[in-house]
Write a structure and sequence with these properties.
It is built from 20 helices and twelve strands. It is an alpha/beta fold.
Length: 423
């Protein structure tokens, strides 16, 4: 089936702000898909719904960066624009966007989210309103080259220090053997939300807390957090290319999948792509939980995306029906098997076909079920500023601008000025 032409979100936002509007031939518009096979899977799911219902849907393209995508959403929604009916929203956005979103319990019924992970349903419920349906969940995992670790006599690392040492050893040996493009470890190092996810995993796994605790207290300025960030800073230019300071998910995946990295931190979606026929590392990749600090435990940041309906939509019930279809069992199962996207329906983690396609859904179930949440709920509308301050600070440490202890003391000062907004 040929792909539909995409409408750009920037064009929609410009039209919304200018007040001109934009006439759409289709019955609905949806923004979905930006990373890996995500766009293709969304197109296929939308096409199935179109075939079943006879309605037409235009797909709106959005930036890969979640930070940039949020900015565009806020631009469009603040203009009360009906340009986008269905929005794909990050797990940390329901509180930020709730006032612009439809209560799906009213449209789809009180049992609309039955069977989905309760923690995600609670996350998506704001002031008693279900503002988004869970679509897929996520947690950070460690990808590694099984063939290289076996060749050099190593098991997957349990601590970040072990990862550092193994990565350095194999990188050096592979370069000496002729691959001068080999690196030890790649991750998402650009100053954006993805770096907040990576850095939270480092800090939490060192016992350094979660930036702001569940009571709203600032916890980030501590020795464990500083030790975690200082270690990460040593990777840049050593086992991690300096270019990683501008990597998002796809740049990291591209380098790993081309066969030029020993380890990679990424989300589960990268599994199906690493196993594709085009992949240079097909059947050579393993997936385990992320390492931890000297006295800590592995921590994986909770990720995932949801589907919401704009309250400015002119076809609210139709948009809600599309959301129900895309987040339903059949579609979530297809996406799990074809794209290794984690279902939000607990029953699918016992589905034999799903586990055959993505074995680590079973072995890492506890990682997904117990992932560490970013402090978006407790900080409410201030979360965007909290995260921006955290990833900017972390990026400065990784860039060698400031030692972690000094940087975290400065970060605490910034966050103190915001603290009164949520306490």
């Amino acid at each position: 089936m040929p792909k539909k032409p995409l409408i750009t979100a920037i064009a929609l936002g410009t039209a919304a702000l200018s007040g001109t509007g934009q006439a759409q031939a289709a019955d609905l518009t949806i923004s979905c898909g930006a990373v890996g096979a995500e766009l293709t899977l969304c197109e296929e799911g939308v096409a199935q719904w179109e075939e079943q219902t006879g309605h037409e849907v235009d797909i709106v393209s959005t930036p890969n960066s979640s930070t940039e995508r949020l900015s565009l959403y806020q631009q469009i929604l603040s203009a009360n624009s009906s340009d986008i009916d269905v929005l794909q929203i990050d797990v940390v956005w329901p509180g930020l966007l709730a006032n612009h979103l439809l209560d799906l319990n009213e449209t789809l019924g009180e049992d609309a989210a039955e069977g989905h992970f309760s923690a995600i349903v609670e996350n998506n419920t704001v002031d008693g309103r279900l503002v988004a349906m869970p679509w897929f969940t996520d947690a950070g995992v460690l990808y590694y080259r099984k063939d290289l670790l076996e060749e050099y006599g190593h098991e997957p690392p349990e601590t970040w220090q072990e990862l550092t040492e193994i990565a350095r050893e194999i990188q050096a040996a592979e370069r000496e053997a002729g691959n001068d493009r080999m690196w030890g470890y790649v991750f998402q190092g650009r100053a954006y939300e993805g770096l907040t996810c990576n850095a939270l995993e480092w800090v939490a796994s060192y016992g350094g807390g979660t930036i702001v605790d569940g009571e709203g207290n600032l916890t980030i300025n501590n020795e464990q957090a500083a030790a975690a960030l200082d270690l990460a800073a040593t990777w840049i230019g050593d086992i991690t290319p300096e270019g990683a300071l501008n990597y998002t998910e796809e740049e990291a995946r591209g380098l790993f999948q081309s066969g030029n990295a020993v380890f990679m931190r990424n989300w589960p979606y990268a599994w199906s792509l690493a196993q594709s026929e085009e992949s240079e590392v097909r059947d050579q990749v393993g997936v385990v939980k992320l390492p931890h600090g000297p006295d800590g435990e592995s921590a994986a940041t909770l990720g995932g995306w949801n589907l919401a309906v704009s309250k400015y939509s002119e076809n609210r019930e139709l948009a809600a029906d599309l959301v129900a279809f895309l987040t339903g069992e059949a579609e979530q199962k297809r996406r799990a098997i074809e794209g290794s996207y984690n279902p939000t329906l607990e029953s699918l983690y016992e589905d034999e076909e799903v586990l055959a396609a993505v074995p680590f859904f079973g072995t890492l179930y506890d990682t997904f079920a117990n992932a560490v949440a970013r402090p978006s709920a407790v900080t409410g509308e201030s979360y965007g500023r909290v995260s921006n301050a955290f990833f900017d600070t972390t990026h400065g440490v990784l860039s060698g601008d400031t030692p972690a202890a000094d940087a975290l003391a400065q970060l605490e000062g910034q966050l103190r000025r915001l603290e009164r907004r949520w306490k």
